[in-house]
Amino acid sequence: MLNKSEYMGGENFDLRDILIRGRKMNLKKKTEFFDSFIDELLSKKQMLHLRVISSPADREVKVVDSYTGEVRSMLMFGSNNYLGLANHPYIKEFVCRMIQKYGAGIGGPPLLNGYTALHHELEERLAHLKGAEDVLIFSSGYGANVGLVSALMNNEDLVVYDSYSHASFHDGIKMSGAQAVHFSHNDVELLEQTLDRTSSMNFKDRFVGVEGVYSMDGDIAPLDLIVPICKKNNAILILDDAHGTGVMGRKGSGTAEHFGVESEVDITMGTFSKTFAVTGGFVAASKSIINYLRFFARSYMFSASLPPTVVASVLAALDVMDKEPELVNRLNDNIKYTAQCLTQLGFPANSLTPIFPLRVPVNMNIRDASFEFHQKGIFINSIEYPAVPKSQQRFRISIMATHTKEDIDRLMEAITEIWKNNEPEQEKKTEEVKVYFNNKKVLFN
Ligand SMILES: Cc1ncc(COP(=O)(O)O)c(C=O)c1O
After folding, report:
1. Which residues line ligand 1 (CB under 6 A)?
2. Which CATH code of 3.30.559.30, 3.40.50.300, 3.40.640.10, 3.40.50.170 fits the domain covering 88-323?
3. Number of the ligand 1 atom closest to the C-alpha atom of 80
4. Which residue among 70, 85, 147, 169 is least crowded, i.e. fewest CB within 10 A of its CB?
5. pLDDT recorded at residue 293
6. Domain boundary assignment for the chain
7. Positions in the chain short of pLDDT 50
8. Which residue, judged by its Cα, is nearest atom 9 of ligand 1?
């Protein structure tokens, strides 16, 4: 057991503290230390990780309350299931048919016995979606980034990447040993300067890494500016379009389509865990890059293939995207409505992507506010330090095509009440602020 001096938990204590202090502890101490951290979260009802969902992933989900054991209906605003495909009847029926034909699993990696006709068909369909020569499928988006980056780069190369890039991109860089420089988020000028300054250094290749839609802020990379900078500097552009695929562009083919630069991005990575609502990842590029990755991306070579059920699910999702373009339209309507409501409440909001960050004032307790959302039947993800800097802690709202306007209204009412309840003293405004939502005044002084 830990004594009091060894445990210095508290509400401002977080996972990074555990990592730092844990470095000096052996495994037994470290895990006990972590247990006491979790126990404290549980006792304060601040533990909302691992909530058990006992229904299909839809706009409304059944959640088992870990404190009372009661099963409650909650509105889901925390899922990347942007088009609502996770519970689509056509997809479920197609997967059932394919499980009869191909069975439940495959039991091997793609280069050996793990490559079915379904895998082959999906690679062709995704290449078509992305306007690329070829595609290869990984068993996760994480594996796709790590495999791609560590296979293509080494210590003779330079990678210049946006500072908001996903952990999987960072991990890939570490594994590759490439020289790496990041630039401030979406600072295109800094990207250009960095490429300019490194042009005479003897790197074998220079890569640029950006995301189409950034997962924490929901803003987009200005590819219309980034593509010409890469071309001018002879740099290879890698686009992580995990959140843009299926959502951005007229056909939902992604952020490059949104900017009309589909044929000019060298390498695009995507996942099946967002719009396609299952799991897996892919890389789209020239035939020779894909061939190379098949034999040198270790997370592809040394990891078993996705089961045919998951592949079938993505294939069926592509059918739905073709046959029901109104889903993207409905999502866009909901995005616009949410942006309008948040702006009325005084939050900055973009109206292009389904991700809305709800910045939490520095002295508002994000864990208490999280529990209030939970109590009000709103399932929303909180993004805490160290995932983001302390000053940027936020709730992340994820909007889906299947949400109704009434769902979004309920979310706004919850936000209004929680902000009113938790507004820190010194941040209270002295003047009355008139904010109207559905003709009701919702924010007071
Ligand atoms: C931008 C980005 N890239 C990669 C990934 C990894 O994808 P997956 O969760 O499918 O492994 C994620 C997932 O959160 C992501 O947001």
Report:
1. 140-142, 145, 166, 168, 211, 215, 240, 242-243, 271, 273, 281
2. 3.40.640.10
3. 14
4. 70
5. 98
6. 1-44, 52-76+326-443, 88-323
7. 1-12, 427-445
8. 141
Quick one: which atom of ligand 1 is closest to the CA of 271?
10
Residue 438, pLDDT score: 37
Tell me which residue has its CA closest to atom 10 in ligand 1.
141
Instruction: For residue 236, give the H/E element and its range.
Output: strand 236-240
101-272-260 Cα angle (round to 5): 120
Q: What is the pLDDT of residue 424?
A: 59
- pLDDT, residue 440, reads 40
pLDDT at 279: 97
Residue with the nearest Cα to atom 16 of ligand 1? 215
Q: How many residues in the chain? A: 445
Ligand 1 centroid vs 441 CA: distance in angstroms?
39
Can you give the pTM of this predicted structure?
Answer: 0.88
The whole-number pLDDT of residue 348 equals: 87
Q: 285-311: per-residue pLDDT in tens? A: 999 999 999 999 999 999 999 999 999
Task: Specify the CATH architecture of the domain 52-76+326-443.
Answer: Alpha-Beta Complex (3.90)
Q: Which ligand 1 atom sits closest to the C-alpha of 214?
A: 1
What one-letter code names the amino acid at 219?
D
Collect all residues with Cβ–Cβ distance below 8 Å to 414 and sequence separation of at least 6: 372, 373, 376, 378
